[in-house]
Amino acid sequence: MARQPVRVYADTFVFGGVFDDEFSKPSRRFFDQVSQGRYRLVISPLVEEELVGAPERVRELLDEVSSDADIVPLPNEATELQARYLAAGIVSEGASDDALHVAIATVTDCSVIVSWNFRHIVHFSRIPLYNGVNASEGYRQIAIHAPSAVIEHEDEEV
Fold this sequence. Notes:
Elements: E1 6-10, H1 12-17, H2 24-35, E2 39-43, H3 45-50, H4 56-66, E3 70-71, H5 76-87, H6 96-107, E4 112-114, H7 127-136, E5 143-145
Parallel strand pairs: 1-2, 1-4, 2-3, 4-5
Helix pairs in contact: 5-6
């Protein structure tokens, strides 16, 4: 019996990372593994909105991977959870969209959110705070990682 692919929410930084020298290799590998069916990509309207002004090649990547992704709506529960994150002081109002990415991934039942945003999302002091609020609001914990920590490497045995 084949295992179901893990639902992974990718924020905007991962799309841009494909074209960034520092993040290109693991970002490309992540999207390759999505296309191979190892992960079920989840994208929100927030990602689409944030990429409207991105370079054309980033928008083309979004269009390319969207055909194989779950594009989830922006549920009211996500904005409510975002407000809880802000009230808890996990991030400031200026980073509210980052909190919304985490909230969307959480309420749409993703197992993982991947991001290159080490300031507001993938940060050792914020991850337990996000999950603490999730637990207090009745949601399960979500794994928060950089794509490099999620991808399967060629030299690995499964």
